[in-house]
Design goal:
By secondary structure, the chain is of the alpha/beta class. It is 55% helix and 13% strand. The longest helix has 25 residues. Bound molecules: thymidine-5'-diphosphate.
């Protein structure tokens, strides 16, 4: 059975770079997979993403924000994630439900339980089989972003350091809430070490690797 695997972390945690390398391993081993992301992953989801991340939308209400992330997720699940899993294709997803719990639940202070409830409607309780949390302090993560000048700065990147600390604390709480599903990876290490730590865990769960 193919697995639904998500990658989570704060800004500048390096999860997207690690994912790109993990994808190379899946390709080498001819393991069927899709690589996708949230918000987005479908045409409708990408339109919702533009609304969510546009720096012009500073006026967005926080419940509107939570609902739009959940709406994008619903579309993604029904049109891409579930169909892939049904065909026994692995799903590698850059952010998913835990991002909403950490960003909207913890950092926006809607409450992890409240945001979880909204998302239960959106996802019908579809949780990933495995989640990697890329653990790096907000200071280190934001310093990495500052160095990477080519990267586009979105509405959430512009939040205060306190906000990013609250996101981080939210993720730590989620690691405690879902200890079996969420695996913490030390993302302050060199990229190659981060990738090999992920692969060690993946090899334990996947006979194909
Ligand atoms: P993106 O450029 O994809 O960020 P990153 O490279 O850090 O993954 O932007 C996604 C932003 O949206 C990011 O700041 C996290 C935020 N987000 C939420 O607040 N809630 C969510 O449910 C999701 C999926 C993302």
């Amino acid at each position: 059975m193919a697995l639904f695997i998500t990658f989570e972390g704060g800004e500048g945690s390096g999860k997207s770079s690690a994912l790109a390398k993990i994808v190379e391993v899946f390709k080498e081993k001819n393991i069927p997979f899709i690589l996708t992301r949230e918000p987005g992953g479908t045409p409708i989801g990408e339109e919702i993403r533009d609304i969510l991340l546009s720096s012009q939308n500073e006026n967005m209400d926080i419940r509107t924000e939570a609902l739009l992330f959940a709406a994008s997720r619903r579309q993604h699940l029904t049109k891409r994630i579930w169909p892939a899993l049904e065909k026994n294709v692995y799903v590698l997803c850059d952010r998913y439900l835990d991002s909403s719990l950490a960003y909207q639940g913890a950092a926006r202070k809607l409450g992890i339980e409240t945001v979880y409830e909204i998302n239960r409607f959106a996802t019908e309780d579809s949780l990933p089989d495995l989640t990697f949390f890329f653990d790096i302090t907000p200071e280190e993560g934001l310093a990495r972003i500052a160095k990477n000048k080519g990267r586009e700065v979105n509405r959430l990147d512009k939040e205060t350091l306190d906000f990013h600390h609250a996101v981080y604390d939210g993720y730590i709480e989620l690691c405690k809430k879902f200890p079996k599903r969420i695996i913490r990876i030390d993302a302050s290490q060199e990229l190659d070490k981060v990738v090999s730590d992920c692969l060690i865990i993946l090899k334990e769960r996947m006979s194909e690797l």
